[in-house]
Amino acid sequence: MDPLTLATSAVTLLMSYFGRLGGRAAERAGDDLGDALTSRLEQLYTSIKGRFVNDRLASASLAQLRAQPDDARHQGSLQYALAQILEADPAFGAALSRLVEDARSAGASPRVTISDSGATAVGGGSVTITAHGGSAAGRDATWMQSTGREEG
Fold first, then answer.
1. Model pTM above 0.85
2. What is the mean pLDDT of residues 45-51?
3. Where are the beta strands (DSSP E) in the chain?
4. Burial of 40 by CB count in 10 Å (0-12 exposed, 13-18 middle, 19+ buried)?
5. Quick one: which of 54, 48, 55, 59 has its CA closest to 12?
6. Across the strands, what pairs with 129?
7. Which are the contacts of 133, defined by CB distance < 8 A and separation ≥ 6?
8. How far is CA 75 from CA 42, 84, 112, 118, 148, in A?
9. Residue 145: per-residue pLDDT
10. Which of 52, 80, 123, 149 is within CB 3.0–4.6 Å of 59 for a Cys-Cys bond?
11. Nearest residue to 53 via CA among 39, 38, 68, 63
12. Among 29, 44, 24, which Cα is nearest to 105's?
């Protein structure tokens, strides 16, 4: 897998991990949640955090994503920092690739959010589409109106 694709996959999985944590500290998540997927995601996080220990900017990017996993700026910043390191360190890339595959085999699926987009098709996984002043349609769709209750 090329460095940018691997970095993107790893960041997507980290977003899932940080989302699972909610308000918990990342270092305690495996103990608190205890499932196999969380354990794999924690290994991925720990590996990246350990590799970033001597890189102040990369560490800051990881901390920012951890604090705000849905922020596209932080996602991009971490993807860039991680891709740079992966290009320079193929051994770390191979180890990270194995961790990404382990997380996927434990049940991690891509998280997709689509906002203010034209026609879009996405297969598999969980998809969130936000349509402000527009409409959204799909098979087996569940939607929330501004009242906050589910419709479907």
1. no
2. 96
3. 111-115, 126-130, 143-144, 150-151
4. buried
5. 48
6. 114
7. none
8. 18, 14, 13, 22, 27
9. 43
10. 52
11. 63
12. 44
